[in-house]
Amino acid sequence: MEHANSITPHSGDLLLIVGTVKGAFIFSCDRNRREFKIAGPYFKGQSVFSTAFFQDNPPRILLGHMSMHWGALVSWSDDFGASWHEPEDGNIKFPAGSGLTLNAVWALERAPLIGADVVFGGADPAALFRSDDRGETFRPVESLLNHPERPYWMPGAGGLCLHTVLPDPRDPKRILVGISSAGMYRSDDGGDSWTRRNKGVKMEGGPPHAPHFGPQCAHKMRYDAKNPARIYLQNHPGVYRSDDGGDSWIDIHAGLPSEFGFPLVAHPSRGDTAYLIPLESDQFRVPLEGAVKVWRTRDAGTSWEPLGHGLPNRDCYFSVLRDAFTSDGLDPAGLYFGTRGGQLFASRDEGESWSSLADWLPAVLCVRAVEVA
């Protein structure tokens, strides 16, 4: 695999932006997805938790990372990694007097229906930030920061983090967020107010009837490609589906070997289709029986099938984190995931077969696939 300090992609090329505990890497290839080039690492020695991409005006890569000088911040490149803008003194922070210190930017998510230059940031401790200038400056969404239920939110093992932001693909005023360990909250008025949306999701160690309020530990949520009212959820524990935009949830983990895991991916164009990577348990976060399998549903969670051709099938003990699994928008859809052991795997045929892109990376925190316009 060819290695360079930066890349010069062409229209239609695919980029994999990979964040690790020791910097970011960019893998690039043409549409056949066979010969990848690699550039990086960028921000050497720094943990890169999140990434986003703007297609034009000019193309921009955003990275949410931990600066050695400024702490957690968002940096950007307008030339595919040849140079980076690292804002002095940070560009995403809590208001003075809040008593809160930003630990990490766990999520970066564009919201083109709200505005072409809008991107949201999810933070630890749990908070939502909004940028209207393509990630150069951020301001906190005060209504969620000062939510009356905030004192009852409980941190998960990785902290109290807002890790998932889902702007509704139909309604610019509706935004759903996932918080560990508070569950799901939704705004229907553009972020002016927020209500919890945990109905039907069981609480680990809680009462036998599913509560409406935590401690809830959402791990990842994704919209269905064809039905925007349908959302898939990998929880801790449990796998769920909502058919009403998050108002209620039903358990769909029957047929899976485990209800514990972190990442979840919806097929980019085919409805009722989603992918999971189950792990053995909360206490032993590795593939079941040491064999890596990606599990797919093509009927919205009524049934599941394992996909493992080309993946390690014995003595494998890594885990895959919530943002380290992604898909591209090509046909057939490509799937990609990175591991805490530093491996990066790819499928060009919707998960039917897999190959290794790298097995020497630092522990992978996030992977995002984007097509260059």
Give a structural overview:
With 373 residues, the protein is an all-beta fold. The protein has one domain: YVTN repeat-like/Quinoprotein amine dehydrogenase (Methylamine Dehydrogenase, Chain H, 7 Propeller), CATH 2.130.10. Helix content is 1%, strand content 40%. It is built from 1 helix and 28 strands. Strands 12, 13, 14, 15, 16, 17, 18 and 19 form an 8-stranded antiparallel beta sheet that branches. A 5-stranded mixed beta sheet has the order 1-4-3-2-28, with no helix packed on it. Strands 8-9-10-11 form a 4-stranded antiparallel beta sheet. β25 and β26 form a beta hairpin. The longest helix has 4 residues.
Could you write a compact summary of the structure shown?
With 373 residues, this protein is mainly beta. The chain has one helix at 142-145; strands at residues 2-4, 14-20, 23-29, 37-42, 48-54, 60-67, 71-77, 104-110, 119-124, 127-131, 139-140, 161-167, 175-181, 183-187, 195-196, 216-223, 231-235, 239-242, 250-251, 260-266, 274-279, 294-297, 305-307, 325-327, 335-338, 344-347, 355-358, 364-371. A hairpin with a 7-residue loop joins strand 26 and strand 27 (355-358).
Chain-wise SSE layout:
Layout: E1 2-4, E2 14-20, E3 23-29, E4 37-42, E5 48-54, E6 60-67, E7 71-77, E8 104-110, E9 119-124, E10 127-131, E11 139-140, H1 142-145, E12 161-167, E13 175-181, E14 183-187, E15 195-196, E16 216-223, E17 231-235, E18 239-242, E19 250-251, E20 260-266, E21 274-279, E22 294-297, E23 305-307, E24 325-327, E25 335-338, E26 344-347, E27 355-358, E28 364-371
Parallel strand pairs: 1-4
Antiparallel strand pairs: 2-3, 2-28, 3-4, 5-6, 6-7, 8-9, 9-10, 10-11, 12-13, 13-14, 13-16, 14-15, 16-17, 17-18, 18-19, 20-21, 21-22, 22-23, 24-25, 25-26, 26-27
